[in-house]
Amino acid sequence: MIEALTAIAASTAGQKVRMDPAQTAFTQDTPTVSFGDTLKATAMKQIETVQASEQMTMSAMHGDASLQEVVEATVKAELAVETALAIRNKAIDAYQEIMRMPI
Amino acid sequence: MDAIAATMKIASSGLQAQSVRVRMVSENIANANSLGSAPGADPYRRKTIVFQSEFDKVLGADVVGIKKIGVDPGDFSLSYDPSHPAADAKGYVKVPNVNPLMEMTDMREATRSYDANLNMIEQARGMAMSTIALLEG
């Protein structure tokens, strides 16, 4: 989850560089991954984490997985969901901030 | 892999190793009175566990694994019980080399180690949670 955060941070940092007025032309930029793409990739990864946790719980019910593995997977999924929530809230905040701007 | 996720994985391996240890202690205690069935036959032999560190390539860190579950080669003590089917010609029966005091100590140690690993998971979770809380501010 943390590496997902670093990926997003890196992506936004890249965007900041692109917005820098010192850099004159956008076309000179090396193509970077867009913020949306990174967000999408992160979300997909987190969905996978949650699904893995669910699968682990199911196999524990069958008696195939140990309690420790289930707890570990669940904590991992919890952190993934928390991260996703935090990022979503941040994105909505940013959107609302823009909407409040007087034109 | 993310260090905090790796910490949880490593601690989880510790939890599993210690739970196997507790299982083994319970085997020893449950079988403390398991005697042989034929005259002069050996009774239950105390089991021992050996841990070793294993390098996990995905994590890039050492996790704990079980090297082997062996048996205690210690001598059996004898108890005089001529009526028992496992009694030898002199009427002595071999008794398992399980010492309840030793098993209890082992169990305590396993519990402490299990708790330590649980705390490790809790700490890692707390660290990750407070990092995420930074985003919410």
Description:
The complex is a heterodimer of chains A (103) and B (137). Helix content of chain A is 77%, strand content 0%. Chain A has 103 residues and is mainly α. In chain A, helix 1 packs antiparallel against helix 2 and helix 2 (35-62) packs antiparallel against helix 3 (67-99). The model of chain A is unreliable at 12-26 (pLDDT under 50). Chain B is α+β, with helices and mostly antiparallel strands. A two-stranded antiparallel ribbon of chain B has the order 1-2. Chain B has a two-stranded antiparallel ribbon with strand order 3-4. In chain B, strand 1 (47-56) and strand 2 form a beta hairpin. In chain B, helix 1 (3-30) runs antiparallel to helix 2. The two termini of chain B are 27 Å apart. The chains are: A mainly alpha (103), B alpha+beta (137). The A-B interface holds A 1-3, 5, 66, 68-69, 71-72, 75-76, 78-79, 82-83, 86-87, 89-90 and B 1-5, 8-9, 12, 15-16, 19, 121, 125, 128-129, 131-133, 135-136.
What does this entry show, briefly?
The complex is a heterodimer of chains A (103) and B (137). Chain A is mainly α.
Descriptors:
heterodimer; A: 103 residues; mainly alpha; 77% helix; 0% strand; B: 137 residues; alpha+beta; two-stranded antiparallel sheet; 2 helices; elongated
Spatially, the strands of the biggest sheet of chain B line up as 1-2
| Strand residue percentage of chain B | 15-25%
- Biggest chain contact: A-B, 19 and 20 residues
Distance between the amino and carboxyl termini of chain A = 38 Å
What structural class do the secondary elements of chain A suggest? mainly alpha
Mean pLDDT of chain A: 77
Number of helices of chain B: 2
Uncertain regions spanning at least 5 consecutive residues of chain A: 12-26
Tell me the structural class of chain B: alpha+beta
Assembly category: heterodimer
- End-to-end separation of chain B: 27 Å
